[in-house]
Amino acid sequence: MSYKLHSGINREPNQNELADFWEVECLKRTDRSASVLDVRKARGIADDIQETDDDDVVDIKFEEVDQSAAEELTRRIKGCNGRYPFNLKSPGHNLVFTPLNDQAEFGYLFLLIATRSNMRDNKVHDGIDGTLLFEEVCALVLRRFLGQRSKSFVFGTGSDGGFVASLEKLRSELREITLHPPLASDTYPPQDDKLDVVAWIPFTDELPSKLMCFAQSKTGTGWQKYTTQLTIEGFATRWFSRQPAIKAIPTFMITDSVIAGDFHHRAAPNLLFDRCRMAEYMDFSGEEELFSRVIKWTKAALLHHKISV
Predict the structure, then answer these.
(1) pLDDT band at 309, cuts 50/70/90?
(2) N or C: which end of the chain has fewer CB within 10 A?
(3) Following DSSP, what letter does each residue of 170-231 receive, concatenated?
(4) pLDDT at 133 over 90
(5) Residues 216, 199: Cα–Cα separation, whole Å
C-alpha cells in the first residue's frame, strides 16, 4: 500500500515514498530538519539495524534505500528550479525545511500533502475541496508554461454550469470548432468526459490553428492507470462536428513526483507535469485569491494530521 499520512509508510517503500516521508518528517520536527537516522527511527527500523545478527547485510540494504531517496530529493532541488522549500545538507544525511517565500513554500506543500492525503474521503479542509482546487492550480500552471498571452479555464467538475456550459465556452473561446447538435447531455451525462483543464495561446486574428493543451489532473498516488484515459481524438469525435485545425496536446498533471528513471515510461503519450514541473511554473503573482485558498487548504490539511507550519 502506498504511503499515506493517515496510515504511515510500509516496511519497503520505494524511493519516492521515502523521499516524501523524509519531507513530512522535517515538517513534524520542531527544528524543521530530519536526518537519515531520524527517518529510520520514525519508520521504526533503527533498532532492527542495531539488533540484527547480520548487521552488515542489513546496513547495506538500508543505505541503498536511503541513498535512492537522497537522489530523488536532489532531483527535486534541481527540478523545482528555486521553488523547493527544503535543502539537503551533508548529502544524504540531513534534510532541512528552508522556505524561500510563501509561494514556494505553500505551493510545494500543497502538492506534497495532496499526494499523501486520502483525497477521496478526506479532500475537503477549511471548506475547500482540494481536488477542485488542484484543477484551478493546473489552469494557472498551464498559463505560466505557455506564456504571458495564454489563456486557460477549468473544464471539469470544478467549472460553473456543468459539461454543456464548458463545451459552449470552449467553442466560444477557441473559435475554430463547432459542436454536434444537439448535445447529448440528456442521454449521456459525461460529467467532464475526463477533460479537466483547457489552455491555449490565442492569435489576434482569431483564425484556426493554435497551440492547445487538453489536460487531465489527478491528486493522490493512484494516477498511473489513468494516463491514457483522456484521448483527444475520442473527445473531439464525440463532441465536435468541426475539429480543431491542429490536434490539442494531451496533457497529464499530477501532485505526485515521478522518479527520473520512470519519467519516459510514465509520460508517454502525454505532456507530463509532475510535482516538480508543477512547482516550477506555480507562480501566483496576481492570483492572490487562488493563493489564499491554497494556503488555507494546506494549513488545514496539515493540522488534520497534527502538523503546523
Answers:
(1) confident
(2) N
(3) HHHHH-S-EEPSSP-TTT---TTTT--EEEE---TT--S---EEEEEEE-SS--GGGTTT--
(4) yes
(5) 12
